[in-house]
Amino acid sequence: MKNLHNALQLKQLYLLKQMGYSYTDIAPSDLENEPTELPDNLEELRKFVENCHLCDLSKSRHKVVFGEGDPHAKLMFVGEGPGATEDSTGRPFVGRAGELLTKMIEKVLYLSRSQVYIANIVKCRPPRNRVPTPTEALTCRPYLLRQIELIQPRIIVTLGATAYRYLTNDESPIGRVRGQVIHTENYLLVPTFHPSYLLRNPSAKKEAYHDLLTVKDLYEKYK
User: Fold this and answer.
1) Full 3-state SS string of the chain
2) What pLDDT score was predicted for residue 31?
3) Residue 122 and residue 207: Cα distance in Å, rounded?
4) Which residues contact 16 (CB under 8 A, 6 or more apart)?
5) Which residues pair with 182 in a beta bridge?
6) N or C end of the chain: smaller count of CB under 10 Å?
7) Whole-angstrom Cα distance, residue 7 to residue 159?
8) Distance, first Cα to last Cα, the chain
9) Residue 45 CB partners (closer than 8 Å, separation 6+)
10) Residue 22 and residue 14: Cα distance in Å, rounded?
11) What pLDDT does residue 5 have?
């Protein structure tokens, strides 16, 4: 698997760009001694990620927030990144936004959190809860892609614009694509608003409710 190898090279290219290079014939450094094969089971992958220091987020984190839930879940939620509560507990979506997500799962989908899997684009908290930089997101994305390969969900719900962008490479506004069913090679993807956005904009909860009804219908077909 070359995802991690590519992420390491991409990190170097971003660093060169930040130093002022617009073009370089400098070859990426020898990465033969870097571990480029990711583990083939979820718990080993968790241990691997907990020891990651590929980007600057590792310098300020308290705990890596790997993800949690049913390792064979048919439904997976992907958010942006951990917040303060998540950073202190090591669990995804356990702050105010997490409380709302739990209610959405229980009250609309009639599922428990233990029946789904919840993860984020980046596994460490960005300072002041800012949006992850492209370097951070693209460096961490191989871990999420490996989680998806191992869990094999039939449906993925992306929460917010950042999660949608880095799983699809589509920069369309979330308000334009939310609620759509996007067919990929291995799963169906449904974008919706991030729970944090819903806390700030309660009027959007109705749209998010309809998005989850779409997810519910899909889930009934594949459970």
Assistant:
1) CCHHHHHHHHHHHHHHHHCCCCCCCCCCCCCCCCCCCCCCCHHHHHHHHHCCCCCCHHHHCCCCCCCEECCCCCEEEEECCCCHHHHHHCCCCCCHHHHHHHHHHHHCCCCCHHHCEEEECCCCCCHHHCCCCHHHHHHHHHHHHHHHHHHCCCEEEEECHHHHHHHHCCCCCHHHHCCCCEECCCCEEEEECCHHHHHHCHHHHHHHHHHHHHHHHHHHHHC
2) 37
3) 26
4) 24, 26
5) 189
6) C
7) 23
8) 30
9) 38, 39, 66, 143, 146, 147, 150
10) 10
11) 52
Domains of the chain: 1-36 (no CATH), 38-222 (3.40.470.10)
188 φ/ψ angles, rounded to the nearest 5 degrees: -95, 140
**Cβ distance 59 to 85 under 8 Å?**
no
173 conformational bin, left if phi > 0, alpha if psi -120 to 50, beta if neither: beta
Nearest CA to 60 out of 152, 134, 123 is that of 123
The amino acid present at 71, given as its one-letter code, is: P
User: What are the tokens at 154?
Assistant: 């039939």
Give the type of residue at 178: R
| Low-confidence spans in the chain with pLDDT less than 50 | 1-2, 14-19, 21, 23-35
Say what the pLDDT of residue 82 is. Answer: 97
What is the arrangement of strands in the sheet containing 188-192, beginning at the earlier edge strand? 68-69, 117-120, 75-79, 155-159, 188-192, 182-183
